[in-house]
Specification:
single chain, alpha/beta, Cobalt-precorrin-4 Transmethylase, domain 1, 3 domains, 11 helices
Length: 269
């Protein structure tokens, strides 16, 4: 039997797929990051399963224990607390070991905080860079933002609410006009997506917010030609002439282009 890698909801428990629920019900064992969190999901959908923990602190030991059982034909499903195991969550070691041991691995896709935030931000142009959790050291964070100046793609990162104000201040110091979005509590009751320049977001989140945070930083100016910028400014002017408030027009065009909103506002005056 293959190892089934199952995506679980990032917030709203109704986002789980029917295929995942059936697989969890039929598996001999469900390997989960936190049995308590997984039990909540299973109880919500009336699924009975035998749960065994597999987390960052026991993954090596658990991998050695379950590989022979997988090879012997047991059916096992792997889940993390939210999203897809192996992407910034435990599970990567087991998945790699299973592949190396000739055990089939079947991935059941589902909710993703990265892709949900990208779409909600309006900043993606196709290619993007996933940064995982941002560096904690101030110097390392500043170096990251400096290198991001010429990135032609959007970047997505996870950040704790406690560190978010400092992270946004750091971004605003290096790239004050860079378009970004703070996505908070995605798919949950109090979901919030706040768009703006790095400077505006640093002012908006001067104090730590509540909930889980996904930060999207838009593409750099290197991806923006002079003609693109002139066209964007002209689009703002046309919207203003049609009666749209300049700030709203600048915000709309900034979301559709790679030109910072503040620059569009100033240059369209």
């Amino acid at each position: 039997m293959p190892l089934f890698v199952c995506a679980t909801p990032i917030g709203n428990l109704e986002d789980v797929t029917l295929r995942v629920l059936r697989t969890l019900q039929e598996a001999d064992v469900v390997l989960c990051e936190d049995t308590r969190r997984t039990r909540i999901l299973l109880t919500r959908h009336r699924v009975q399963a035998r749960l065994v923990s597999l987390h960052a602190h026991n993954e090596a030991q658990r991998t050695a224990e379950v590989l022979p059982r997988l090879a012997a034909g047991e059916s096992m499903a792997l889940v993390s607390d939210a999203g897809l195991p192996g992407v910034n969550d435990p599970g990567g070691r087991l998945i790699s070991a299973a592949i190396e041991g000739g055990i089939p691995v079947t991935v059941l896709p589902g909710p993703s905080a990265v892709e949900t935030a990208l779409v909600a931000s309006g900043l993606s142009r196709g290619e993007y860079l996933f940064l995982g959790y941002l560096p904690r050291a101030r110097g390392a964070l500043r170096r990251l933002w400096a290198s991001a100046a010429a990135w032609p793609w959007a970047a997505v990162a996870f950040e704790s609410p406690r560190r978010l104000p400092g992270t946004l201040r750091s971004l605003a110091e290096i790239l004050p006009d860079r378009n970004a979005a703070v996505c908070r509590e995605l798919t949950k009751r109090y979901e919030e997506v706040v768009h703006g320049s790095a400077t505006e977001l640093a002012e908006r989140f001067s104090e730590p917010p509540k909930g889980e945070i996904t930060l999207v930083v838009g593409p750099g100016r290197a991806a923006e030609s002079d003609s693109d910028r002139a066209t964007a400014v002209a689009a703002v002017a046309e919207l203003v002439a049609a009666g749209v408030p300049r700030r709203d027009a600048s915000d709309l065009v900034a979301r559709l282009t790679r030109v910072p909103r503040n620059a569009l506002y100033r240059e369209s005056l």
